[in-house]
Design a protein that fits this description.
This protein has 390 residues and is an alpha+beta fold. Helices cover 34% and strands 26% of the residues. It has twelve helices and 17 strands. The protein has a nine-stranded mixed beta sheet with strand order 5-4-6-7-1-8-13-12-11, sandwiched between helices. Strand 15 and strand 16 form a beta hairpin. Helix 1 crosses helix 2 and helix 7 crosses helix 8. The protein is globular and about 55 Å long. Bound molecules: acetoacetyl-coenzyme A. The site of acetoacetyl-coenzyme A has 26 residues, from helix 2 and helix 6.
Length: 390
């Protein structure tokens, strides 16, 4: 029996109600804005309103997929996040009623820092290889948060990317080769008692580059393509300049000349949305794919490289090919609008939102209405999160 191709059949992105301009942050921190624009490659970052979280943006990302394809054949929902709302219950179950997911599906949350979305995609491919009639909904959703007034602060952000994974996909066929690299390293982590991540910034940048090189070596060892074959490279983007650094490192490690023009050509279209959304942890790599598809000329039949990195750390280098007619399945207008319709956030309100804490007393707490996006967190009562859709 020949196995049909497996990959991404549909993909959709959502972000938060607010955006904070990096010029505002630079001014308040007394930093040259070019450090953010050029040094880390960020212009604005998405910030969640008081009534938004990883569930509301995940639901907003997944809803258009359900509207287009229905829920038939969805037997598994894999939600990847590293900013989860519950230590036990999968966030996928909170959004289950919001978007009408079927009861006849397994719903699980995955965690390994920013790598979780790739784990979801690869696990989905395995399930579909076993039974090609099934579809898997993979949702990567995160709100990236560092302490105020720390070097990590300008690299915050938020987004969710939902992917319908199926046999005979309409957008991207996954290729079978994969390169892996895992190592225990304390570059970025968040103990259960903290709301903001801890990070050793320089160590994390070096760890990302080393992991990219090691995963590439493993990809080649397992029969993957030559570096020169790829039409574009989608990197995990904690900040967009990181994609530049990692690609330069990869080219140099393989003996290629890493001139700026060659690096820009390889990554340019993958960074447009991340530059204005910021880090979205598990979703960031896939937001890079959305950006590439929305901005590049026709890539039909072209191989694309994916480099997934999750601190701690796990990396994977894998590849996929864009399918004939993929353009007809994109959501370019909706994606652009998700970014351009965000409301500019004032600095004082940004700090208030950043420092707000979830009530822990079990009483009823209504959450003031703030977001204009399709789903919101309406209240917390009896330690339960209560969501509503518009
Ligand atoms: N004009 C132009 N460029 C400027 C500038 C100016 N006025 N001022 C500074 N720069 C440049 C610097 O030269 C530097 O460039 P290089 O990296 O090419 O040397 C760049 O701006 C950054 O400056 P610093 O190194 O001084 O920045 P920093 O110490 O304040 O912090 C950071 C940088 C370590 C990335 C910090 O933002 C951070 O800790 N971020 C969070 C961790 C992170 O994102 N790590 C990435 C790998 S881990 C990962 O990928 C997982 C994940 O999602 C977290």
């Amino acid at each position: 029996m020949t196995t049909p191709p497996v990959g991404i059949h549909d993909l959709s992105f959502a972000t938060t109600h607010y955006a904070l301009d990096h010029a505002l942050l630079a001014d308040r921190l007394g930093v040259d804005p070019n450090k953010f624009y050029l040094g880390i490659g960020q212009e604005t970052m998405s910030v969640a309103a008081a009534d938004e979280d990883i569930v509301t943006i995940a639901a907003a990302a997944a809803q258009p997929i359900i509207d287009r394809h229905g829920v038939d054949h969805i037997r598994t929902v894999l939600l990847a996040t590293e900013s989860g709302v519950d230590q036990s219950k999968s966030a996928g179950l909170y959004l289950h009623p919001l978007i009408g997911l079927p009861n006849t599906a397994r719903v699980v949350e995955l965690k390994q820092a920013c790598y979780g979305g790739t784990a979801g995609l690869q696990f989905a491919a395995g399930l579909i290889a076993r039974d090609p009639s099934q579809r898997v909904l993979v949702i990567a959703t995160d709100i990236a948060k560092y302490e105020l007034d720390t070097p990590g602060e300008p690299t915050q952000g938020a987004a969710a990317v939902a992917m319908l994974v199926s046999a005979n996909p309409a957008i991207l066929r996954l290729e079978p080769h994969s390169g892996l690299y895992s190592a225990d390293i304390m570059d970025f982590w968040r103990p259960n008692y903290r709301t903001a991540a801890l990070v050793d910034g320089k160590t994390s940048v070096n760890a990302y580059q080393k992991a990219t090189q090691e995963a590439w070596t493993d990809y080649r060892r397992h029969g993957g393509r030559d570096l020169g074959e790829f039409a574009a490279f989608c990197y995990h983007q904690p900040f967009t300049r990181m994609a530049f650094k990692a690609h330069r490192h990869l080219l140099e490690s393989q003996g290629f000349t890493a001139d700026t023009a060659a690096i820009d050509a390889a990554i340019r279209h993958t960074t447009s949305y991340n530059r204005t959304v910021g880090n979205s942890y598990t979703a960031s790599l896939y937001l890079g794919l959305v950006s590439l598809l929305d901005h590049a000329d026709d890539l039909t039949d072209q191989p694309i490289a994916f480099i997934s990195y999750g601190s701690g750390s796990v990396a994977e280098f894998f590849s996929g090919t864009l399918q004939p007619g993929y353009h007809d399945h994109l959501r370019t207008d909706a994606n652009r609008s998700a970014v351009t319709t965000r409301v500019p956030l004032g600095y004082d309100r940004y700090r208030e939102l950043h420092e707000a804490r979830t009530p822990t007393d079990g009483r009823y707490h209504a959450i003031p209405e703030e977001t204009t996006r399709p789903f919101r967190l309406a209240a917390i009562s009896g330690h339960k999160r209560i969501y509503e859709s518009r």
